[in-house]
Amino acid sequence: MRRISGRERTKPALWATLTATTMLTAIVPAMAQQPADSSQIETIIVTAEKRSEDIQKAPLAIQTLSTQKLEDLHITDFNDYARYFPTLNYTVGGAGGGNAGPGFANISMRGIDSGSDGNHSGPLPTVGVYLDEQPITTIGGTLDMHIYDIDRVEVLSGPQGTLYGASSEAGTIRIITNKPDPSGFSASYDVQGNNVSHGGDGYMGEGFVNVPLADNAAIRIVAWYQHDAGYIDNVEGTRTYPGCPVATCAIPDGVPYVPPGTISNAGLAKKDFNDATTYGARAALKIDLDANWTITPTLMAQWQNTDGVFGYDPTVGYLEVQHYLPEFVHQNWYQAALTVQGKVGDLDLTYSGGHMDWWIHGESDYSDYTYWYDKLFPSSFPQVFTDNHGNYLTAPTQFIFESDHFVKDSQEVRVASPATDRLRFIGGLFYERQQHWILQNYQIAGLATSEAVPGWPDTWWLTDQERVDQDMAAFGDVSFSITPQLILTGGLRLYDYENRLKGFFGFGAGSPYGGSTGQTQCFGPGTFHNDPCTDLDAHAVGTGNTHKINLSYQVDDNRMVYATWSTGFRPGGINRRSDYGSYSPDKLTNYEVGWKTSWLDNSLRFNGDVFWENWDNVQFPFLGENSFTIIQNAGNAVSKGIESNVDWKPISSLTLSAAAAVTDAQLTSNYCGFSNLATQIPISNCPNALPSTDPGADANPPEAPKGTQLPITPKYKGNLTARYDFPLASLAAHVQGSWEAQSSSWSDLRVNASTPPYAGASTANTLVPIRENQPGYGTFDFTTGVQTDAWTVEFFIQNAFDQRVEQYRYAECVAQVCGSESYIVPQRPRLIGIKFGQNF
User: Fold this and answer.
1) Which residues, including other chains, have CB under 8 Å from residue 249's CB and lie 6 or more apart?
2) What DSSP letter does each residue of 694-728 carry, written as one string?
3) What is the structure's pLDDT at 680?
4) Are 836 and 792 spatial neighbours (Cβ–Cβ below 8 Å)?
5) Which end of the chain has fewer CB atoms within 10 angstroms, the N or the C?
6) What average pLDDT is seen over the chain?
7) Radius of gyration, alpha carbons of the chain
8) Cα separation of 26 and 3, whole Å?
9) What residue segments make up the domains of the chain, in order of their start?
10) Quick one: DSSP state of residue 258?
């Protein structure tokens, strides 16, 4: 793969926004003495601390998008709102790890990202996601729920472990829905049509109705249907597997020659083949039992079907791939929840329980794996297979069939004393159980029954496992007003976790590659899902605590400063391959100073924070030998930076909003590529490191040296939005422009990685460079429209100048092997749309 300079290339426009934010900080005190001549910025009430409070009074780093902002920015899914939170970054997996489509976002905040989370047998996430009171975080990614009739999205930066638990090590996202309202009937709908450059046409319809059932009860029903056009083409072509033409090839059954074989995708070539269709509904019932008690049951379900892949192959062309087998992901999920709120004396009591059920079915082309292992290692790893007649499969193209079932149950009960008390507290108990059935069936059409996994025709490799992650905790926050302005808060969470993985993974006993993995390693009979036997049954348990100490000072009614020392954690776990043992928990320690300020009669708000985070014992999942996921602890890292957001209404008709983050996240110790298997302590002094293919490199270089920038997260990220409202005849009109940009980032934690150590491979036991630079970018969105009290018409353009945005890269097997054919996941090309809506 090409070598990339380590120097960051930052977009000049992004520097302009960061400079403007700094200048604004300097002139705000002077402006505060000027008379205000603009209307105020809306007050946003948040529940980030599990109490209702003005966002300007909440002493933590939190950014929100309100109902109006979500509508103004045409936000319909996770990809949309992630652009407007500079602290938030993500990658996307998919069926077999190769779809990269919607519904599988692996989120990080403040640079706490090792680059490869999201594998079904990997570490738990570092960012928690909540829908109202219930956690919806999953090991495979974040549910990509449709964003409509949403009250707000809250993004809480930094560890939130005391109130939100294990998967909130680096932060928490909270999606808060609009609740049923017994005070009156209301309804609305919107329809939209759009076109994507280089692609096809899309459309969407969505609506809600709120119906009072009595003075104390109401029901709210929301529904949506969205079709997103494709923009990546599967172009016609062929691929020839090299076979094994050398007489000395080490073919397992001793046959000295396997001829080349060619495949074609002529029957599957198609333009715009990565389209997506999403539809679903949400229903909520609210009943006020009396003046003190309310119950709110909700039910939400969504179906999503995607075709093709969402990354293109630059060796084929921009927005083009050459794939040879059908590819799709069909997923559906529902979440049922119940929230009960009431009072017991002066105490507020809240119970929340949720049940989530998520099914995934998909297929992925996996021909890259077959081809590149054949091409690079013909003398030691030829893909040699036969059919039931003894004929050699000269083109053994692989594909993955995936069927996953994820079930999550959560229960929480908590009590809170009155917020007006000088000494006040929140305390509670939490229980969560996640069960994940994982089926990944790697197939080769026509494979001999004797070489397949027993009971699974054509299956070369089978992963059929059940994973259970269980978490119990007791938590509490106590606040004391030392003075009316000075408040000290302490938080503590005591937790107990157990993670278990059981089932079968690997080859059948008759496979020529099954000597060390699969049926030959079984120690018991199959236990579920028609497994041939059991070769995996391991678990990890642990207990511990995480804490928070916060001191806030209310300078006056409009200005507050705070300081926080907090910690977050992520449980340890086990590797499927027993020779790698288990991996240990990692821990995040956060030091943060922040400010919340309002100026000019609340027409200007300027908030921000400075943070330093130590990430100890970093859990690092990566593809090892045979593209098998391994998790190791990669030593320590540090992330430090600044986050800021500004909202300003210089005149009543003009609103300006800006947000930016500067993040410097890097390793503070060498990652050598291995740990002490007995103690699981990462080895940072690399005495046994592999020699490098780079003639200028050290004799024993680490795979990632101390000072390496952590992957995925750019050093600079920001956005700016301007909206102007004005009368047009008898109508209300508006124009809006948004700009979002970031600097470059890296694709992998490792600068170098070892080639697969197959005997006889010419490059075995060496390090090769695999780290690629993902260029920075800047995009613009524009909206204009008119409205009355009853209807709205808007015309909008997203990615107006059709920038070629590279969000991240991936390969279908280890980068050392498949890296010559890596895929670029782009931001969607320019989209032009028109939207009409009515209110009732």
Assistant:
1) 256, 257, 258, 378, 379, 382
2) -TTS-SS--SB-TTPBPSS--SEEEEEEEEEEEEE
3) 60
4) yes
5) C
6) 86
7) 27
8) 41
9) 12-389+400-839
10) B
Class of domain 12-389+400-839: mainly beta
pLDDT tens digits along 264-297: 999 999 999 999 999 999 999 999 999 999 999 9
Dihedral angle at the C-alpha atoms of 96, 199, 106, 9, nearest 10 degrees? 120
Joined together, the tokens standing for residue 99 give: 């779809």
Instruction: Check if the beta carbon of residue 812 is closer than 8 Å to that of residue 97.
Output: yes
407 vs 527: CA distance, rounded Å: 19
Residue with tokens 């907090």: 566
Q: Helix, strand, coil % (nearest 5) of the chain?
A: 10, 50, 40
Q: Are 773 and 45 in contact (CB under 8 A)?
A: no
Q: What is the 3-state secondary structure (H, E, C) of 505-518?
A: EEECCCCCCCCCCE
Tokens 């699969």 belong to 518
pLDDT in tens, 458-488: 999 999 999 999 999 999 999 999 999 999 9
Closest Cα to residue 332, out of 379, 258, 278, 391?
278
DSSP 748-783: -S-SEEEPP--TT-TTTT-EEE---EE--EEEEEEE
* Statement: residue 393 has pLDDT above 70: yes
| Rounded alpha-carbon distances, angstroms, from residue 449 to 439, 452, 509, 660 | 20, 5, 11, 58
Total residue count of the chain as it appears in this document: 840
Q: How far apart are the first and last CA of the chain?
A: 58
Count the Cβ atoms, other than its own, within 10 Å of residue 181: 14
Q: Is residue 546 scored above 90 in pLDDT?
A: yes
Residue position matching structure tokens 């190791």: 632
C-beta separation of 818 from 812 below 8 A: yes
For 706-745, what is each residue's pLDDT tens digit?
Answer: 999 999 999 999 999 999 999 999 999 999 999 999 999 9
Band (592; pLDDT cuts 50, 70, 90): very high
430 contacts 403 by C-beta, under 8 angstroms: no
DSSP per residue, 368-432: HHHHHHHHH-TTT-----B-TTS-B-SS--EEEEEEEEEEEEEEEEEEE--TTSSEEEEEEEEEE
Residue 678: what residue type? A
pLDDT surpasses 90 at 699: no
Q: What is the reported pLDDT for 142?
A: 79
CA dihedral 503, 507, 510, 513 (to 10 degrees): -150
How far, in Å, CA of 129 to CA of 337, rounded?
15
DSSP 158: S
State residue 365's pLDDT score: 93
